[in-house]
Design a protein that fits this description.
By secondary structure, the chain is α+β, with helices and mostly antiparallel strands. It is 50% helix and 13% strand. It folds into 3 domains: 52 residues, no CATH class; 99 residues, Tyrosine recombinase, N-terminal domain (DNA polymerase, domain 1); 183 residues, Orthogonal Bundle (hpI Integrase, Chain A). The strands form 3 sheets. It has a 3-stranded antiparallel beta sheet, covered by helices on one side. Strands 4-5-8 form a 3-stranded antiparallel beta sheet, with no helix packed on it. A two-stranded antiparallel ribbon has the order 6-7. The protein is globular, with a radius of gyration of 28 Å.
């Protein structure tokens, strides 16, 4: 009797047929078959074909071939924005360098030379790429490497041989004075856009999550907000032309699906604008505001307030910093922000002010104050 998963079965004409994947065309498997008078003979033939395929793969495992298969197979598990990112990395950086080369030919020295080129002369203007961009390219190379190994290709390099140090970014956190000035302006010019900005300052939700919010996501009786969608403009291929469209889907990780308690100041404002079966930022069922538009509105409001320019994501950094200053439990804060671990919260979003540092340092003096 054939075993499950072997793809060998007996035909009506009495022969045994064993099926195998001959090739992938545009991500779809194309099958071929071997035939024999007995199950054992069919299995031997099928094993021989698969062994031959593995040997051929080890010899013809070009980066271009494996890259295309990797993207096609990943389409069902990765979000379209991630697929777009990896397509760009392959097209702009990896394939021009290694496209026609076999994985078995690429050495650690080749990879180190590649990284050096990216850092010193990469980019359209040969200006050299930022460490963060180079790290993403290396991540894509590692994804290709793991995929190749899983499919029995020979691989002769490891991205672990290269260490790219990321530069520490200057994180923008609004000062208390800036927040007070901004909140005064928003309350004096209260509308759905102002409400959305205030909501981000008091909950730390992301811009895409804000734009995807609908009034049904609020439980006014329990004074809670359920975050389970995000909005993003992504590239889509249509008739061989690259176009973009706005899509709404689940957040980037399961941890980002969360319930956030709402402070009283936000609940009071929400009740004034409540509109069932509609997007929060428009008050309409079919019309929404995309993240890029909301980002521009935010920058215009900052300019109107005389506040230095900042990215919308600064509201999230500011929320986390204020929570730490007020003595929030870090685990609770991490869950409110939708992080997978407390370490992400502390390292990426918590930025103590100099005033808080000074206050903490002065506590040492209080220990030894002479009365």
């Amino acid at each position: 009797m054939p075993r499950r998963g072997e793809n060998i079965y007996k035909r009506k004409d009495g022969r045994w047929e064993g099926r195998y994947i001959k090739e992938y065309v545009e991500g779809k498997a194309h099958y071929r078959a071997v035939y024999a008078k007995s199950y054992r003979e069919a299995k031997n033939k099928l094993d021989a074909v698969k062994k031959s395929q593995k040997l051929a793969q080890a010899k013809a495992g070009s980066v271009m071939t494996i890259g295309n298969r990797w993207l096609a197979d990943s389409a069902g598990t990765l979000k379209i924005s991630s697929i777009n990112k990896y397509e760009d990395i392959l097209r702009c950086y990896i394939l021009p360098k290694f496209g026609n080369r076999e994985f078995s030919e690429i050495t650690n020295r080749d990879l180190m030379s590649f990284v050096h080129e990216l850092r010193t002369s990469g980019g359209t203007k040969k200006q050299g790429l930022a460490p963060a961009t180079v790290a993403e390219i290396l991540s894509a190379m590692n994804g290709l490497r793991v995929y190749a190994l899983k499919h029995d290709y020979n691989v002769a390099f490891s991205p672990e041989c290269v260490n790219v140090k990321r530069e520490q970014k200057n994180i923008r956190v609004f000062s208390l004075e800036e927040e007070k000035k901004l909140f005064t302006y928003l309350q004096e010019n209260m509308n759905l856009t102002s409400l959305g900005i205030l909501l981000c300052f008091f909950t730390g939700i992301r811009l895409g999550e804000l734009c995807a919010l609908q009034w049904e996501d609020f439980n006014m009786q329990e004074r809670q907000l359920c975050v389970h969608r995000t909005m993003q403009r992504v590239r889509v291929d249509n008739d061989q032309k690259h176009k973009t469209e706005v899509r709404i889907f689940e957040p980037k990780s399961s941890c980002s699906i969360r319930i956030i308690p709402l402070p009283d100041i936000i609940v009071d404002s929400l009740e004034d604008f409540y509109t069932p079966d509609a997007f929060l930022l428009t008050g309409q069922r079919e019309r929404f505001i995309e993240p890029r538009t909301m980002q521009n509105r935010f920058k215009s409001i900052l300019a109107a307030c005389g506040i230095a320019n900042a990215n919308f994501h600064a509201t999230r950094h500011t929320f986390a910093t204020r929570c730490i200053e007020l003595g929030f439990d870090v685990k609770s804060l991490s869950e409110i922000l939708g992080h997978a671990s407390v370490a992400i919260t502390m390292n990426r979003y918590v930025h103590p002010t100099m005033a808080l540092k000074s206050e903490n340092m002065n506590r040492l003096s209080e220990l030894f104050t002479v009365k």
